[in-house]
Amino acid sequence: MKEHEIHIPFPERKIAHVGEGHDKGGVESRGKGIRLQHLTPIPQGESLAEISQALLARMEKAFAVKKDAQGQSVIGKIEEERRHLRALPLRPFDPSRLVLVSMSSQSTVRLEGALYSFPSHWARLDAAAYVGVDQARIVRRGETMTYPKKRRGEKQICYRHYLRELTRKPQVAPELMTELGELFQRLWKLFEEMHCGKETGRVIAKVLQTIVDHSL
Length: 216
Known about the structure:
By secondary structure, this protein is α+β, with helices and mostly antiparallel strands.
């Protein structure tokens, strides 16, 4: 072996040339092979995490079966290679994009075309948004809220953020009751049967004020 050549045991016995790009084609070819084997047809799932876990499980199963001329599996090669790698940092790398945002008077923020709501006491204050691939994390004065990332034009409105305001105008009480759970949905139906429309709202307002004063 020449002095300027480094022997790489994984994934195959190849020679990597330091400071040169002669191996670029081989790397791209290997990437194309993995794409054709495991990403064709394109995987589908409810979330990116679900797709990733299914893909990793499928690849690990294939790697455990495939062996080289010496009878060593790809999984075995990975474990051998892992012993020579550096330890991972204590804090994982966060690839999220930092965006400085200002809350509206309704305590909402628009990120990449999607609208998100936050507790009413956040209104008109500045915050830091960390926008990732599948979630958005917003930090304000030590408080943190994380939402699944919505598409452009979609909304993520949580009426529980406006409990104090809704004690005065409970016009979205049905939606709020859904967020609070089945017991409150049954309570709303009971009040509707007992009272007329406006009176139902007044009774619900008292219930909401109790939640504000004494917690849920």
